[in-house]
Amino acid sequence: MLGASVLDPEEVADEVMKGLADGRFLILPHAEVRGPCAYRATDTDRWLRGMRRLRRRIDEVAAG
């Protein structure tokens, strides 16, 4: 289902070890999450507003 975007455990372990060696606090081994995590960290209020809108839409769909 996820295809090529799934990392092998060895790839994750390698990235974690590199992050530890570099002294990084946040280690994000998958390139696809780096952007969203950086965005969330730089504009938290906007991200939270977006998540609230998404939650409302999900609740509306669930309610029928």
TrEMBL record:
It comes from the Bacteria. This is Oxidoreductase. It comes from Streptomyces xantholiticus.
